[in-house]
């Protein structure tokens, strides 16, 4: 499946947004870690490991943000896969270092999964979701063994793991749908442009003189036959935006006042041939 990063939205913009969001999460975790209570809200089991991992996690995304802002990440699929895997590993360590009351932090995996689904192909994003699900199951095993919890911990972990896969699939589906709509819009615009060019060629080759004007008499379109009949020397493209000759303008004004009246033929620049104009 294609991703948004392959097309109209520059990949570096997505990376910059996602890295900024992850840095915000790291800052929030650091604030929670710094709150002085009898039991830390996060990082209580192994504070040093938690803090070291959090600093590395933040440093990684600061580096990605700098590279993205310097526009040096337009083609970095392998790097993005590595970042997705590192995200899962870092979050797993942060959760493990937070101890028994860290289960709410497991929802942070969803952020990593969404980010990966936005910038990576389908299989790679599913790989990130699988790693997150495996991390959740390993944490459930640890809690059951360490704290003698009932086996229903595995059901909770399995449900959360399933949520990870559903999230990756839904994001990929939305990305693919947006991509298809964008391609369809681009194709329609291209078809319209081709039709306009074709119509212009047809009009230019007609022997009948055709002039398209606005209510001020400004030329929007004029073909070669009309240019010759009106005795205009400029190229038809150069005539666009100019005003129609006075004789044609007078005939047009007369017709505007009385549309049922056939305009009187007129001559251009003393030509012996009269021009019969017809307006619609």
3D architecture notes:
The chain has 280 residues and is mainly α. The protein has helices spanning 11-34, 47-69, 77-98, 108-119, 122-147, 152-205, 224-229, 236-239, 246-257, and strands at residues 211-213, 219-222, 266-267, 274-275. The strands form two sheets. The protein has a two-stranded antiparallel ribbon with strand order 1-2. Strands 3-4 form a two-stranded antiparallel sheet. Strand 3 (266-267) and strand 4 form a beta hairpin. Helix 2 runs antiparallel to helix 3 (77-98) and helix 4 (108-119) packs parallel to helix 6. The radius of gyration is 34 Å and the shape is rod-shaped. Residues 1-9 have low confidence and may be disordered.
Fraction in helix:
55-70%
Percentage beta strand: under 5%
One letter per element, helices H and strands E, the order comes to HHHHHHEEHHHEE
Q: How does the major sheet shape up? A: 2 strands, antiparallel
Instruction: Flag low-confidence runs.
Output: 1-9
Shape: rod-shaped
Largest beta sheet: strand ordering = 1-2
The strand count comes to 4
Radius of gyration: 34 Å
**SS element count, helices:** 9
Whole-number mean pLDDT: 81
State the distance separating the first and last CA atoms: 51 Å
Please state the structural category: mainly alpha
């Amino acid at each position: 499946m294609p991703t948004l990063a392959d097309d109209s939205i520059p990949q570096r913009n997505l990376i910059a947004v996602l890295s900024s969001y992850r840095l915000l999460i790291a800052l929030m975790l650091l604030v929670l870690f710094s709150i002085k209570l009898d039991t830390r809200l996060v990082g209580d089991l192994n504070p040093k490991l938690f803090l070291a991992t959090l600093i590395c996690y933040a440093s990684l995304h600061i580096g990605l943000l700098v590279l993205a802002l310097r526009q040096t990440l337009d083609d970095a699929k392998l790097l993005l896969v590595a970042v997705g895997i590192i995200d899962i590993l870092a979050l797993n360590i942060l959760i493990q270092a937070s101890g028994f009351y860290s289960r709410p932090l497991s929802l942070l995996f969803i952020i990593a999964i969404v980010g990966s689904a936005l910038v990576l192909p389908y299989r790679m994003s599913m790989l990130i979701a699988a790693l997150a699900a495996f991390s959740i199951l390993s944490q459930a095993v640890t809690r059951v063994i360490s704290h003698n919890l009932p086996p229903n911990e595995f059901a909770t972990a399995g449900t959360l793991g399933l949520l990870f896969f559903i999230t990756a699939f839904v994001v990929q589906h939305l990305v693919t749908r947006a991509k298809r709509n964008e391609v369809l819009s681009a194709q329609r615009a291209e078809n319209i442009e081709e039709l306009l060019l074709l119509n212009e060629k047809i009009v230019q080759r007609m022997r009948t003189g055709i002039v398209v004007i606005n209510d001020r008499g400004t030329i929007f379109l004029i073909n070669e036959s009309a240019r010759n009949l009106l005795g205009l020397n400029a190229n038809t493209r150069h005539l666009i935006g100019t005003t129609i000759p006075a004789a044609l303008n007078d005939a047009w004004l007369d017709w505007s006042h009385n549309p049922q009246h056939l305009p009187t033929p007129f001559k251009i620049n003393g030509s012996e041939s009269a021009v019969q104009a017809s307006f619609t």
